UniProtKB/TrEMBL annotation:
Entry protein name: Exodeoxyribonuclease-3
Family: Belongs to the DNA repair enzymes AP/ExoA family.
Domain Endonuclease/exonuclease/phosphatase: 4-248
Cofactor remark from the record: Probably binds two magnesium or manganese ions per subunit.
First and last residue of the signal peptide: none
Annotated organism of origin: Pedobacter westerhofensis
Sites annotated Transition state stabilizer: 149
Swiss-Prot/TrEMBL site (Interaction with DNA substrate) positions: 248
Residues the record marks as site: Important for catalytic activity: 218
Entries under PANTHER family matching the protein: EXODEOXYRIBONUCLEASE III (PTHR43250:SF1)
GO MF, one example: metal ion binding
Length: 257
């Protein structure tokens, strides 16, 4: 089974790129972030024509997450994290897909930092961590994947000294990520590529992609029930080089059945 995550940076504007990638790589389950489209503007028919069923949690101009499945076996479990009924951002959606609980997330950026946006990010992280702990008590395999907007270690940032004060790399943000993984989650990409420089995001500016000046901010966290099924993980680096593409590259894992 192949599961992928992709911050598309606008699902309608990047639709040709998304459809080409789906056709070329045929993942079984796909999590998308930054749809930047309200509920009614999600391109459901185009996704269906590509062979995928979908559920989505949209928002006009900002945020937005979706889960796609080739089997069509998607049972939505929740949209939005518990813990703050006033948080209307479309950043989390969760479903049971082919026997796996899939949590698709788009964690807040947090910049400029310090300030209210960083405080919101840390509160959101706390809610994610609390929900993740609850998921681990359930007798199901779980994957939490998406754009975490965190570089966990210096290995995950090109010239990390430039990011010291950024909300993607500040000590309290990295500590929040490690507090989450310390519950027993496996960082799939790092497990399969220990010590390797591997990036998932490349800025549109300063020729970042060509220089491999990137960040690793898109992650797969696997519950203990899935850790033993992990066969491989990687980044579709070449997709970042396509015309009119997202500034993120798709990330994927392969699991044994």
């Amino acid at each position: 089974m192949k599961i992928a995550t992709y911050n598309v940076n606008g699902v309608n504007g990047r639709l040709p790129v998304l459809l080409r990638w789906l056709e070329e790589t045929t993942p079984d389950i796909v999590c998308l972030q930054e749809l930047k489209a309200p509920e009614e503007k999600f391109p459901e028919q185009a996704i269906l024509d590509a062979g995928y069923h979908a559920i989505w949690h949209g928002q006009k101009s900002w945020n937005g997450v979706a889960i796609l499945s080739r089997s069509g076996d998607i049972k939505e479990r929740r949209r939005g994290l518990p813990g703050d009924d006033e948080d209307l951002h479309s950043r989390y959606i969760e479903a049971l897909v082919d026997g796996i609980v899939v949590g698709c997330l788009y964690l807040p950026n947090g910049n400029p930092a310090p300030g209210p946006k960083l405080e919101y990010k840390l509160r959101w992280f706390e809610r994610l961590t609390a929900h993740a702990a609850t998921l681990l008590t359930q007798d199901l395999p779980v994957v939490l994947t998406g754009d975490y907007n965190v570089m966990p270690t210096e290995l995950d940032a090109y010239k990390p000294e430039r990011w010291v004060d950024d909300a993607l790399f500040r000590p309290e943000v990295r500590a929040a990520f490690h507090q989450l993984t310390d519950q027993g989650w496996t960082d799939a990409l790092r497990k399969t590529h220990p010590g390797e420089v591997i990036y998932t995001f490349f800025d549109y500016f300063r020729n970042a992609y060509a220089r491999n000046a990137g960040l690793r901010i898109d992650h797969f966290l696997l519950s203990p029930k899935l850790d033993g099924r992990l066969l491989a993980a990687g980044v579709d680096h070449n997709v970042r080089g396509w015309e009119k593409t997202s500034d993120h590259a798709p990330v994927w894992i392969e699991l044994s059945e």
